[in-house]
Amino acid sequence: MATGRADSGNEARAGGPGPETETSPTEPGTGTPAAARATAAPPDHEPDRAPEPVPDPGPGPVPDPEPDTASASAPTPASASVTGPAADPEQGPATGPTPDSATGPTPDSATDPAPDSATDPAPDPADTHIVSAPAETSAGRAEPPSGPAEAPRHATEEPPGAVPESGAGTRRGPVGRIWRHPRLRWPKRALLALVLVLLVPSLAAGIALRVNYAGDPGPGTATRNRDALWLGHAWVDGRKKDADVTSLAARLRSTGIRDLYVHAGPLEHDGTLPRTAYPRAAWLIAAVHRELPGVRVQAWLGDALASEGPNGLRMERAGTRKAVVGSTRQILAAGFDGVHFDFEPLHSGNRDYLSLLDDLREVTRSRHVPLSVAAHQIDPLPAAHAVRGSLTNHPKWWSQWYFGQVARRVDQIALMSYDTALPMESLYGGYVAQQTSLALEVTPKSTDLLMGLPFFHEDDMSHHESAETVTAAVRGARLGLSRTDRHRDRFGLALYVDFAATEADWTAYREGWVR
């Protein structure tokens, strides 16, 4: 908004308008007007001149007008013959006393001689003072001013005690002047357009997620006994004991968990797997089979990829992919019931990964064990991964097409529907519902689709524990399932991770999903 500066304007002239011309009365006995006598004045007197504009005196008393020396050389008819009050030409004959009749003779009375023009020179305009006209009282009598006249207030000066209006008459600072510079007009418009491009879709997406979380899940949206749980490395490196397996079995018997993804890696950057990484694997597998018949113990393998930095596993190398296949044979030989891979960050469209899955599928099928993978989230908006990837070099999401390509090559796919950076529980629940629907649309009926739940508690830029709750995730998954494929059998939830879960997380899972 324009905050401009108030114009100061010209000050009002202190002298006001010029003197008005009055008709002189006729001189008694001669019939000659008084004005004629003024023109017949001696030649050494200056003729009448038009009054000069009165200069702006500024503060201080107002100067007297310059006396007319020609007309003052002889008494006027009014001063010579009239002994009563002077008549006002606009109001007619006066009936009362003159303003100063009570205190003394007026300057125009007959007792005062006319000023001597020869001895009294005309006053210098610079030394004169214009006296303000006396105020008239209610009785018609003018009162003399009690002190020097006040100078007129400046046009922009505020009266005493006045509060200046907000934004009026204020000076813009340097930032304000720079911001309103004409050269910034187009950059400001471009900035506004960029804000709108980013803000409007975000607001629309937020509203859509909130709406997606509304309503009630349909009947029959409960566990299919195909759920999974990620377990930490402590289960295979010797830190866990028989008592721990007994406690775990007691917790899992009343749930729908069928698969355990036990961390047995990670892989080396060249794709190999040290045998020393899982020294207690055989003990764990036997203990779980004893305590929980029918529950499968899968080896959880993976590594950080060099897709966004110099360090990590390079999947584009054929030798590295071959080493990963060899590590899979090695871990299955140790007695595991399947293998679960998690490579991150894995960009959408990576065909080297699809080629690796084709090779791994041959190995797992030959041993009649499942091949399982952890998958990135699906684009919440069309081409979201491409836009984010061009801006941050971290696409985060997969396209829906790529998610379907991965799902066709595995027996299980677990969508990691956490670390969304969403700030509210309702938005997160709506997001999980959306992800569930998107995944169901492209996952083959022969593949188990699991929705990953956050069984951990962190609070950072990517994860807000107050928003990403188990309750919201379970409800969102049920909403997505009931809206897209309510009768689908190969569907479940995957809980990440056992060592960070709380009793409240387990309760929310049982009450919301196991029922």
UniProtKB/TrEMBL annotation:
User: Is Membrane among the key words of this record?
Assistant: yes
Signal peptide position in this chain?
none
MF-aspect GO terms: hydrolase activity
* Keyword terms, alphabetized: Hydrolase, Membrane, Transmembrane, Transmembrane helix
Membrane-crossing residue ranges in chain numbering: 190-209
Composition bias of kind Low complexity appears in: 19-42, 69-87, 102-121
Give the region (Disordered) as residue ranges.
Answer: 1-175
Q: Where is the composition biased (Pro residues)?
A: 52-64
**Key word Transmembrane helix present in the record?**
yes
Annotated protein name in UniProt: Glycoside hydrolase family 18 protein
